[in-house]
Amino acid sequence: MRWRRGVRTATSSTNVARALVKLFKHVVNVWHFYASVTLMILAALLSSLIPYIMRYIIDAGIVKRSFEVILNRSSLLIALVAVSSLFRLGSGYVGSLATQRVVHMLRASAFESMPRKPARFFSNVAVGQAITTIVNDTGRVDGFLAFEFLECS
Predict the structure, then answer these.
(1) β partners of residue 7
(2) What is the CATH number of the domain that holds 119?
(3) Which of 17, 23, 134, 145 has the highest count of CB atoms within 10 angstroms of its CB?
(4) Per DSSP, what are the bridge partners of residue 9?
(5) Domain count within the chain
(6) Distance from the first to the final alpha carbon of the chain
(7) For residue 3, what are the β-bridge partners?
(8) Mapping DSSP to helix (H, G, I), strand (E, B) and coil, where does residue 125 land?
(9) Are 87 and 46 in contact (CB under 8 A)?
């Protein structure tokens, strides 16, 4: 990234790739993302069973007029939907925890790097502006990660 007249600009796609690699390093260390993805996959698998159970209810229960099959499979269907919903809820909750942890790590590493900056950096950029940029950028990352994991679940 390059600072020009108080505005940080990306100079090439190499900088974007470098930023994504740094973000990935933080994401890999948070086990909550793995748990969120696992819960998301389990919820999707359970949801994919619903049409098969509905087909069995129609074929074996309604067509053959078996009230017992309809009652048993309908209760299984309700339980399946409930468990799948719980998995989706857990995935969203754990995903938001993961997002908060990654953003905290990004902010901490950004503020830890401030004392290592050369003096000419602070003569070109006001400290308040640098801090505001860090906070805004981590807010954007927070929005991106929250959207990806909460909307996908």
Answers:
(1) 4
(2) 1.20.1560.10
(3) 145
(4) 2
(5) 1
(6) 33
(7) 8
(8) coil
(9) yes
Task: Report d(CA 34, CA 97) in Å as an integer.
Answer: 12
The closest of 137, 147, 126, 145 to 27, measured between CA atoms, is: 145
C-alpha span between 106 and 20 (Å, rounded): 12
Residue 65 has which token pair? 């007029």
Domain that holds residue 40: 2-152
CA 44 – CA 35 distance, rounded (Å): 14
Q: Give me 12's structure tokens.
A: 């090439």
Q: What is the pLDDT of residues 70-124, one digit of tens each?
A: 899 999 999 999 999 999 999 888 888 888 888 888 888 877 877 887 877 777 7
Element (H, E) at 4: strand 2-4
When computed from its CA atoms, the radius of gyration of the chain, rounded to whole angstroms, is 24
